[in-house]
Specification:
The chain contains 14 helices and 19 strands. By secondary structure, it is α/β, with parallel strands linked by helices. The strands form 5 sheets. Strands 2-1-3-4-5-6 form a 6-stranded parallel sheet, sandwiched between helices. Strands 15-16-17-19-18 form a 5-stranded mixed β-barrel. Helix 9 (224-232) packs parallel to helix 10 (252-260) and helix 13 (321-334) packs parallel to helix 14 (361-384). The longest helix is centred in the last third of the chain and has 24 residues, at 361-384. The radius of gyration is 23 Å and the shape is globular. The two termini are 34 Å apart. Mean pLDDT is 94; it is low at 1-11. The chain binds S-adenosyl-L-homocysteine, iron/sulfur cluster (SF4) and FE3-S4 cluster. Residues 61-62, 172-173, 175, 210-211, 244, 246, 271, 273, 311, 313, 342, 344-345, 347 line the site of S-adenosyl-L-homocysteine.
């Protein structure tokens, strides 16, 4: 946590409010953006009303996410006369670029994530009265947003972005257009940050990247699996997670690392998107159903019980009922612990826009409901295998209303558990819990004493 150390007069005049949408990478970018602003003498305030500078870190992965931003921009109008400045950061900023100034003329900063390293200079431009400051690198930069300042919001789990951008260009996806080209940090700089986090008392590290396992160490020293092992070996670190893995780049060495090193969490998020090879090809996903299932078989052959989660899209243009059923049968075969499910949403710039045979909204909604229903059964079945086990949970907090504590297992499952009367637990501590029951998306238990 960075503590503000600027002078009072600075602090009073330079205030900002930041709201974040989107994925974990956006959330962590925001931690770094906040850290950068604090280091520039700004003070964070909890409401738009109190702020001199209002920032939105935006997401455009699906149409709904993007609309949220434009709804917020419409709200800006009423503050226009108060001299507040507005900035749009993140994926919508990069995607829409200077068009945002036309749509919302009261916005004076538009900056995509590939330009955050230039934020200090952009803030100076804003302060000296520039009304249209832009940072729109658009797949040009080779640099990552590395900053010593990050205002981390979770005191126990620290996020480290190891690879930025994406070069995969899946037919439906905006990310390659919004986050720039794929570029990795050196393993030395990642390990340095991991050590700093351990020194600050963090015990869990989550390594982030749009395709975290496409990591290529620019110094050539470590493969992704070797980096995982090195981070897990940092003294004080008890859990290491990584997300999101792309199936094409998922090697057996990752499973071997998880088997060998207990601090590597036994969970892999491996988005499949569709169970049909024809649809995967149309999506340009770079693997077939069988190749995906081969990777799953490596994971399932591990000595440790590795939980599996995924992302699934229904209603990609041209997806037939049979192809949709292939997704259902793949879910049955894999037996996911949980999945994130989405209706296909047409996005600007993407190749899938040119495809015919759009699936009607009502049909997408039907397929989504069928899929979610199926996962409920699979998730419950998967969770039942834990009933009777004693598992380690990292305590996240207390649910006062239910009188229960909430923890996470190494397999990233939510575990609600009771403790004997009078026992208080500390958030961030690790306890053993006996699992006594389960739901489709969570486990229940009691403290093992
Ligand atoms: N890089 C990761 C995922 C990043 S985006 C990967 O390749 O697996 C997170 C998820 O959003 C994707 O896995 C996909 O399921 C979903 N998604 C992306 N674009 C979408 C779109 N246009 N419509 C619906 N869902 C989409
Ligand atoms: Fe999007 Fe595909 Fe890149 Fe994932 S791999 S971020 S789905 S383009
Ligand atoms: Fe959204 Fe950008 Fe993340 S589009 S999901 S914020 S990479």
């Amino acid at each position: 946590m960075v503590v503000y150390t600027g002078s009072m007069s600075d602090a009073a005049s330079k205030t900002f409010y930041l709201e974040t949408f989107g994925c974990q990478m956006n959330a962590h970018d925001s931690e770094k953006v906040v850290g950068t602003l604090l280091a520039q003498g700004y003070r964070q305030v909890p409401t738009v009303e109190e702020a001199g500078l209002v920032l939105y870190n935006t997401c455009s992965i699906r149409d709904k996410a993007e609309q949220k931003v434009f709804n917020r921009l419409a709200d800006y109008k009423k503050y226009r006369a108060q001299g507040k400045k507005f900035g749009v950061l993140g994926c919508v900023a990069q995607q829409e670029g200077e068009r945002i100034f036309e749509r919302a003329p009261y916005v004076s900063l538009v900056c995509g994530s590939a330009s955050y390293r230039n934020l200090p200079q952009m803030l100076v431009q804003l302060e000296t009265g520039s009304s249209r400051v832009t940072g729109l690198d658009d797949r040009m930069t080779d640099e990552c947003f590395e900053t010593e300042f990050a205002a981390r919001t979770n005191p126990h789990r620290g996020y480290i972005t190891i690879i930025e951008g994406c070069d995969k260009f899946c037919a439906y996806c905006v990310v390659p257009f919004t986050r720039g080209k794929e570029r990795s940090r050196t393993s030395a700089s990642v390990l340095e940050e991991a050590r700093q986090l351990a020194d600050l008392g963090y015990t869990e590290i989550q390594l982030l990247g749009q395709n975290v396992n496409s990591y290529r160490d620019p110094s050539g020293l470590k493969s992704f699996a070797e980096l995982l092992v090195a981070v897990a070996s940092v003294v004080g670190i008890r859990r290491v997670r990584f997300t999101t893995s792309h199936p094409r780049d998922f090697g057996r060495d990752i499973v071997e690392a998880i088997d060998a090193v207990p601090a590597l969490c036994n969970h892999v998020h491996l988005p499949v998107q569709s169970g049909s090879t024809r649809v995967l090809d149309a999506m340009s996903r770079l693997y077939t159903r069988d190749e995906y299932l081969e990777r799953i078989s490596w994971i399932q052959a591990a000595r440790r019980d590795i939980s599996l989660t995924s992302d699934l899209i229904v209603g990609f243009p041209g997806e037939t009922e049979r192809e949709f059923e292939e997704t259902l049968s793949l879910m049955d075969l894999v037996g996911y612990d949980s999945v994130f499910t989405f209706k296909y949403s047409p996005r600007p710039n993407t190749p899938a826009l040119r495809l015919e045979d759009a699936i009607p909204e009502a049909e997408k909604a039907r397929r989504l409901a069928v899929l979610n229903d199926r996962q409920k059964q699979i998730g419950t079945r998967r969770n039942q295998r834990h009933v009777g086990q004693i598992v380690e949970a990292m305590v996240e907090g207390k649910n006062a209303a239910r009188g229960q504590w909430v923890g996470r297992t190494s397999q990233i499952k939510v575990l609600n558990f009771t403790v004997p009367a009078g026992v208080e637990l500390a958030a961030g501590s690790y306890v053993d819990v006996r699992v006594t029951g389960c739901f489709p998306n969570s486990l229940v238990g009691e403290l093992a004493v």
